[in-house]
């Protein structure tokens, strides 16, 4: 996992904050200076915080858990869609559906409804409907696909939330805080970092800045997924070796039992000549009678 250096973050304009009059005092530790009425973010702290967040997300992915990416602003939509899809993680780039986390069962019902409509198109139910009914259902399906299609594979609550612009996505952050879900976020100088567990101080308005941070984060997630696959393969190999070691022991025990059985059968044969000994004594006892 390679974290971008100072020059790379500088080229991606990660250091530009908002106007001084729009700042949030809670972001003071992450501000380097003020120039021409604009706050400049300390990129050394950005680099350190990004490395910390990437390591935490790598561990989450290594455990096989899901990370939900949220970004509904125009300059971040396509970037989040591409990066999240590359690592197989769910994302929300349209309007945040209120109660998506706190009322998750209802959201799952809407996703199941989308699957039910797909089933209707294949089993012939659509053919028995009127043209108007088909049009209504098709529009409903398109609306569900637009808002919830990217989270169709999310069967349970995510283990983490990655947010671009925590000020704009304050509802998602509030729901995650209520449920105790850790929040990772790109935080600009006008936002409040107190509700974010892993703060990445950076410019959240430039697409280049968002891209370089998401690229680092998704590379860390990809490494975690690869390590998980390697561990699964190693565990399978260990299980196969353990079974292979256990099989010869069982066969040895069976062979030893088979080897002991002939000995038990030979013992009666050795006793047969002893049973004929009394006949010789009887012949000796009959000799005086002959005299």
- CATH fold name of the largest domain, please? Rossmann fold
The total count of strands amounts to 8
At CATH level 2, the architecture of the largest domain is 3-Layer(aba) Sandwich
Number of helices: 8
Helical amount: 55-70%
Number of domains: 2
Indicate the overall shape: flat
| Poorly predicted segments | 263-267, 275-291
CATH class of the largest domain: Alpha Beta
Strand content: 5-15%
Q: What does the average pLDDT come to?
A: 83
Rg from C-alpha positions?
A: 37 Å
Describe the model.
The protein has helices at about 5-10, 45-60, 75-85, 105-120, 130-150, 170-180, 205-275, 275-290, and strands spanning about 15-20, 30-35, 40, 65-70, 90, 160-165, 185, 200. It has about 290 residues and is α/β, with parallel strands linked by helices. The protein folds into two domains: about 5-230, Glucose-6-phosphate isomerase like protein, domain 1 (Rossmann fold); about 235-265. α4 (about 105-120) crosses α5 (about 130-150). The longest helix has about 70 residues, at about 205-275.
